[in-house]
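Bump. Still looking for Succinate dehydrogenase structure tokens.
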Amino acid sequence: MAPLRIGVILAFFIVYATVRIFMNTWYWVDDYHYLTPLYSPCITESCVPNSSHLGTWFGEFPRVIPFSIITFAVLAGFRGTCYYYRKAGYRSLFFAPAACAVPEPHKKYSGERKFPLVALNLHRYFFYGALLFGLLNVYDGILAFHGKDGGFGIGLGTVIIWVNLVFLWLYTLSCHACRHIVGGRLKNFSKHPLRYRYWTFVSKLNPKHGTFAMTSLFTVILTDAYIMALSAGWFSDLRIFN
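Sorry for the wait, here they are.
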């Protein structure tokens, strides 16, 4: 049942994210400065007013091109090449194989040495992009402490955004590539105490990488769905302060 359950979750997220990025709407709540992570950063002239925190780098996009095409490419590349998602995808979506000690269904297996699977080895480079977008999400989270009168404020949306940030960073920092980058190729840890400290921290997170990977899918969907509902006017944000 595990491969089927994980396959359903992965398929749902893929469909949801694809539909949302092509909607090109309902991603910004101006009253409280909530920006969904699926559209961050919004850097085209097609973005609604005040949602372009980094300015507009591009002109207006045609309706068929998502505003968040760069964000989607980097983050989808990071998750798509992730070692955990590769295992989950092979087992749950392609049944190659469905589990350990189960025969490989394909007659030939060449590993990940040929196109397009060889592109999965770009994971480390997508990791650097994920770090950058993670920092942008933190900036968005800081801006979300915004009251309707322009001062400091906290709402349910602020809490949801920061819960999502926590799990996104747990997923990113527990990555195998992160562990290798901070502590790989060191022959003597005692000569590199800071890197050893980082490596020890990441090593403690690494065993739960799969848990963080799946949990962060749900927090991303929850954050986007909540902001979409507020932006569309379906209901109002529950305010905790101001």
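The chain has one domain: 3-106+115-241.

Edit: fixed formatting.
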